[in-house]
């Protein structure tokens, strides 16, 4: 599946490295992942979420608040991949692997997770090793420069991550499936109401996917009770609001010990032309 991020030739595993015919070589880390970010486009040491952000997201997700979404995503993916004997799935922008691990439960699936953060990818390996998952591979890479051969994937999953029309169309087989998860209008509205004087609903995302045919839209919502100040703050760190909230708003946030929020998601299915 992997191609060289420098010359786009096929990568082959040789010992503890991935190598192409042009001599470019990428060492496999001790945990088993590989860094396929190129310094020409990204600084592999600083790209994406840092270790503290990954830790906060991991601790929040592992408490199960978003487990219903992970299970629903697996259900949707399973339905669209019915009939595929050994589907290849790319989790693009996989973060620390919470949804990837759930997707790995699909029968005979081969899963490839990529994220721009080396810290997130390292944690993905920890997650699958602890769970005994053997059908997942992970690489540090960009959604806008996927390290995969053309026409090689049956499905690409993007959960709260950047979406790339051209790269996804290149890598997916004809008729392959792209599943995009984004916030519904009321997602975390109660949390925003506690922090902002004038909370607003989320606007729908337009990904300009002109190389895909539109499939189904599913709105999936439920309530979750956040039972500690730490859980509330960890969730807030996962949102874009964290970076644009005033000190006054952050003080309001830190005063909360519990809050019930709407967890709302739009699951969109697109088909590659």
Provide the spatial order of strands within the biggest beta sheet: 4-7-6-5-8-9-11-10
- From the alpha carbons, calculate the radius of gyration and give it in angstroms: 19 Å
Q: Quick one: CATH class?
A: Alpha Beta
CATH level 4 superfamily: Vaccinia Virus protein VP39
Give a quick account of the main beta sheet: strands, pairing sense, barrel closure: 8 strands, mixed
Strands, count:
11
Uncertain runs are: none
Overall pLDDT: 93
| CA(first)-CA(last) distance | 21 Å
What is the CATH T-level topology?
Answer: Rossmann fold
Helicity range: 25-40%
Listing every helix as H and every strand as E from the N terminus to the C terminus, the arrangement reads EEEEHHEHEHEEHEHEHHE
Strand content: 25-35%
Query: Which CATH architecture is right?
Result: 3-Layer(aba) Sandwich
Dominant shape = globular
Number of helices: 8
Helix/strand-derived category reads alpha/beta
Number of domains: 1
Write a structural description.
The protein is of the alpha/beta class and 273 residues long. It has one domain (12-272): Vaccinia Virus protein VP39 (Rossmann fold), CATH 3.40.50. Helix content is 28%, strand content 27%. The chain contains 8 helices and 11 strands. An 8-stranded mixed β-sheet has the order 4-7-6-5-8-9-11-10, with helices on both faces. The protein has a 3-stranded antiparallel β-sheet with strand order 1-2-3, with no helix packed on it. Helix 5 (165-171) links the parallel strand 8 (153-159) and strand 9. The longest helix is centred in the first third of the chain and has 14 residues, at 67-80. The chain is globular, with a radius of gyration of 19 Å. 39% of the residues are buried.
């Amino acid at each position: 599946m992997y191609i060289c991020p420098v010359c786009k030739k096929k990568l082959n595993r040789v010992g503890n490295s991935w190598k192409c015919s042009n001599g470019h070589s990428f060492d496999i880390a001790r945990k088993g992942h590989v860094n396929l970010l190129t310094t020409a486009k990204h600084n592999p040491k600083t790209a994406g979420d840092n270790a503290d952000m990954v830790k906060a997201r991991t601790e929040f997700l592992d408490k199960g608040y978003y487990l219903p979404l992970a299970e629903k995503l697996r259900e949707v993916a399973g339905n669209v991949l019915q009939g595929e004997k050994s589907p290849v799935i790319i989790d693009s922008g996989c973060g620390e692997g919470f949804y990837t691990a759930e997707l790995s439960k699909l029968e005979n699936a081969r899963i490839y997770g990529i994220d721009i953060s080396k810290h997130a990818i390292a944690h993905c390996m920890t997650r699958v090793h602890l769970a005994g998952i053997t059908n997942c591979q992970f690489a540090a890479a960009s959604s806008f420069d996927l390290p995969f051969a053309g026409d090689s994937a049956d499905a690409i999953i993007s959960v709260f991550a950047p979406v790339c029309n051209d790269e996804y169309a290149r890598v997916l087989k004809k008729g392959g499936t792209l599943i995009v998860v984004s916030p519904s209008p009321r997602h975390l509205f109660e949390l925003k109401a506690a922090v902002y004087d004038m909370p607003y609903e989320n606007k729908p995302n337009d990904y300009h996917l002109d190389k895909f045919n539109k499939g189904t839209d599913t709105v999936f919502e439920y309530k979750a009770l956040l039972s500690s100040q730490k859980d509330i703050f960890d969730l807030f760190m996962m949102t874009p609001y964290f970076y644009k909230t005033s000190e006054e708003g952050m003080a309001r946030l830190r005063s909360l010990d519990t809050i019930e929020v709407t967890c709302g998601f739009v699951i969109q299915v697109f088909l590659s032309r």
